[in-house]
Amino acid sequence: MPSLWTDGRLEAPTSAGGIDGVTAADVVVVGAGITGLTTALLVSRAGKSVVVVEARHVGAATTGNTTGKVSVLQGSKLASIAGKHGTDTLRAYVTGNTEGRDWLVRHCEEHGLSYQREDDHAYAQNAQGLSTVRDVHAACREAGLDAQWVDEADVPFPFAGGVRLRDQAQIDPIPYLSSLVAELERHGGILLQGVRATSVSGSGPLRVALRRTAGEQDTRAAEHTVTAQRVVLATGIPVLDRGFFFARMEPKRSYCMAFDVPGDITRSMYLSVDSPSRSVRYAPGETGDKLIVGGAGHTVGRSSHPKNAVTELARWAALHFPGAVQTHYWSAQDYHPIDELPYVGPLLPKMENILVATGFDKWGMTNGVAAALALSSRILGGRMDWAAAFASWSPHELTGIPTALQLNMEVGFQLAKGWISPLTASSEVPEEGQGVVSGTPWKMTATSVVDGVTRTVSPVCPHLGGVVNWNDSDLAWECPLHGSRFAPDGALIEGPATRGLTASR
């Protein structure tokens, strides 16, 4: 299920010989998405030796499956921050995102990359959502953004009122990532693809354990070690449990589709603030503009039938854009932080040698670049005053304690539910495209049927022992505790787990 951006793109994993030749670097960056590659480039420009480690391929996770909106407006996000934090924190967050947006746009201009300047809208689909939109407008004014209230918009879908922020941007993220890789390698940086970082140990230097992703189900697979003075974890959610970031965020899955549409397509960017969420933009292509529609989001592993919501999203597009023909379908994972603000900085307080960047809450196009600016400045001895709003450890997180308590109570419930529910589940082979977990706690199995192939694996997530659930839209197993995801054969798709589901016995 490649996204519109990754369709037709071929990436070859680094050979075993290529991995063996890499033994040390000043900085190892884990994750080749927008945050990791931008950080790597900024640090390499300063003369540091850099190795980027990517478990799959460039843009394989969130960045290559985003909507590609580069906006400071961000739906209801600013209103949520304003509701929990003071004006100074709100303005610092907006400043960081503005600098991230502007850096990305300048990079596109300097490297001849295509992007589109478009207005962005946060809007209500009906009268019930207007109060949220008014909160967004008030937050924009408080943050010093020149956002306008609009009662109407030239769109074919319900629009009860909204906020418009002019002159934002939208991109195809893959050419941007490719340009970062090309420049990184010109500065002597190294990219390892198809290589998973499994652990980081030591203190000076750090030892990063690597394992080739191909064949990693074999627990005897050989590991390779690279030493570094600094490690940056830019993996969506940190692959190390130190810092308990998995307990400070909620993993969210959302879905996108691209359509060929006869006639004119809505030109600006739109995101509803009420449910069900609807995201709209266009994307220029060789054969004409495509419509991109997103939504149908849910907490990872906790939706009984995500396919139903995705089907409804497609119906919504067909209803409001008659004649629309779907050409692509994809999904992405993002992490909602308990206090609404990203976590960018030390993995543990005062641990400057291992840094993290996470919690972008679907706004990685700006937050990811802002994080890269903050991290590279930290590594090189500089300072970004606005970076306090992005701190990985800060008193402002106290505002998220009630949310954290509720979140982790739900995790506990999902843990218990996962071990009990299979007792009453059918042990029969499921239908095509479905998966089921059944059996007693001491002999549970997860069985799925995809393309006529029946596969059975252990349903126990190797991260913290949660029992996975089936996503019938993505055809994947998902852990409802902290969002680890696995292919039907148990292969790890994304963490915080660092290995796949074991074969069923």
UniProtKB/TrEMBL annotation:
The keyword Iron applies. It comes from the Bacteria. GO terms for cellular component: cytoplasm. The keyword Metal-binding applies. Keywords: 2Fe-2S, Iron, Iron-sulfur, Metal-binding. This is FAD-dependent oxidoreductase. It holds the Pfam family DAO. It comes from Mycolicibacterium obuense. Residues 420-505 form the Rieske domain. GO terms for molecular function: 2 iron, 2 sulfur cluster binding; metal ion binding; monooxygenase activity; oxidoreductase activity, acting on paired donors, with incorporation or reduction of molecular oxygen. InterPro entries: FAD-dep_OxRdtase (IPR006076), FAD/NAD-bd_sf (IPR036188), Rieske_2Fe-2S (IPR017941), Rieske_2Fe-2S_sf (IPR036922). SUPFAM superfamilies: FAD/NAD(P)-binding domain (SSF51905), ISP domain (SSF50022).
